[in-house]
Amino acid sequence: MPETGINSTFSKSTGLPRKRFYRARAHSNPLSDSHFPVPLSPSHVDYSLHYPHFFPSSDQADSSKKIKFADIGCGFGGLLISLSTLFPETLMIGMELRDKVSEYVKERILSLRVANPGQYQNISVVRTNSMKYIPNHFEKAQLSKMFFLFPDPHFKEKNHRRRVISPFLLDEYAFVLEVGGIIYTITDVEELGDWMKTCLENHPLFEPLTEKELEADPAVKLLSSATEEGQKVARNDGQTFQAVYRRIAASDQIS
What we know:
Elements: H1 47-50, E1 67-72, H2 78-86, E2 91-96, H3 99-115, E3 123-127, H4 130-137, E4 143-149, H5 167-176, E5 177-187, H6 190-202, E6 206-208, H7 211-216, H8 218-222, H9 228-235, E7 241-247
Parallel strand pairs: 1-2, 1-4, 2-3, 4-5
Antiparallel strand pairs: 5-7, 6-7
């Protein structure tokens, strides 16, 4: 339960954690070694720790309910919170490398669950390095949506290998996405937007959504508004660059 008091990290009025106590660097080096538990395989992910409402015990061997949405580099959890009520029966997880930020998201979700009984039970967060450990968390064709919102641009050419969208990493994302699953990307850096779009365009297992499909997808509407970064760009009348692509079957490749 959130504590109250003069030095509490939780707001008395909202019961939510105060973000100023969880501030961290805007980005972390994804190639550095960090110390956190990593599941040996997707079957070792303990769903009862993340979703106790759906999994009262750690014995989930016979359950077919799996995580379907992954927010890569979830930041302070704004997208997860918004998606939770749109898709209340869909399990989703935020993956965040920064320890203070992931701890904030965890406390935020727990507080929302207390304040809104029955809600926000379908979202969770894990501190991990998604550039290294995606296959440890998700099975083949498990996910239906992956989100990459305002990732680190890594401007220097020598650091482009640190970008979270790359030809090599798209192979891994294609592996864990079901056919028809969607990758959503957005940035306020035009060069990075071009990079991500080009990587997706050139990958044989992805194709862009049509304008009609983009307009009908409720998740697309959240890309620029649900996160702290997106709201900051909007306040400054900035421009954003999106690329939204669908996972296709190998047999659907255009020759």
